[in-house]
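so my prof wants the structure for this chain in the tokens format not the other one, which i didnt know existed until like an hour ago. anyway here's the sequence
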Amino acid sequence: MISAALVAALVGYGSTIALVLAAAAAVGATQAQTASWLLAICLAKAVGAAGLSYFSRVPVVLAWSTPGAALIAATSGISMNEAVGAFVLAGVLIALTGAIKPLERVVALIPDGVAAGMLAGVLLPFCLKGPAAAQGLGWIAVAMGAVFVLVRLKNPALAVLATLAVGGITAFGFGGAAWPALALPLPRLTFIAPSFRLEVLIGLGVPLYLVTMASQNLPGFATIRAAGYEPPVGPALITTGGLSALAGLFGAHTISVAAITAAICLGDDVHPDRTQRWKVGLAYAVAWVGLGLLGPAVLLLLGALPQNVMSLLVALALLGPLTGALAGAYGPVPTRFAATITLAVTASGVAAFGIGAAFWGLAAGLAVVALDRAKAAVA
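here's what i got, hopefully its the right format
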């Protein structure tokens, strides 16, 4: 049980920490604000996982929103205070979705293909940066790519974590990266006053809510059901949304029910008695508290790595989510063209009226769907 929780936490942290740091950099977070972001989101996940698992007696593990971090990292012209306002809004919307059933039904009206197209459009630009980053790294990129491919054959969940380790070892050992003077100061939460600018709330807050719901919460609930448990959907949305809104005031973006890392914590090897597996949520919470306390040291280590290493790592880490998003976008035949429009507009990164591309991609896709349905109705 303890080993499963530790592996799940390390996989969740190591596989996408570079993307979270890219998101923090995109909104101009200071070193202190980035450290607060990491601590707040780790504590939110710990409290949420422990509370939901204990009260529901279902093994519920949480994750930070990986597509949400990609969405934030793709933005520009947004201050940290404005980003915090968007984070708070997204958290409140998630909580309201759990508390108000009609809102959940409104979200369900968005076609799956269009939602997946928006997610694919968010992820695609990061994956396309991988080859250019690899070109600048030479044999370090070869080592990282080889480890990623080989480990993925055996254990896909550990592939990015192993690639991060190899990238760090080769960069510090042979790539000219300077080893930082490590210190272990206790991290500190830093309150960041939210700024609610309408364009940012629409262009970042709403898409952050939608990608967190569509690409993480819903698959997370499906993963729990596949393991033979009934997920506490309402309480989970209210809890993760409320904690996201609170943690947002300290710089953190949204948390959600986990899918990939949840699978690690739901199998028979966790505990032979399935009625006792909920306790893995408690061990998972302890692991995330520990990772949160190590935040300053992690920032020093990753900050010393060459930017190309981080860019390549992010590109490799997002290949799996991009594959899933593309499959979802082009699965439903009736919405394939709408999904393509959504993907193209979102991936373009073009903002209009101060509102980000993800919103316009979703709006364009929904407009195409509406036109297609109107045509079918009069045919």
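also thought this was worth mentioning. The first strand starts at residue 62 and ends at 64.
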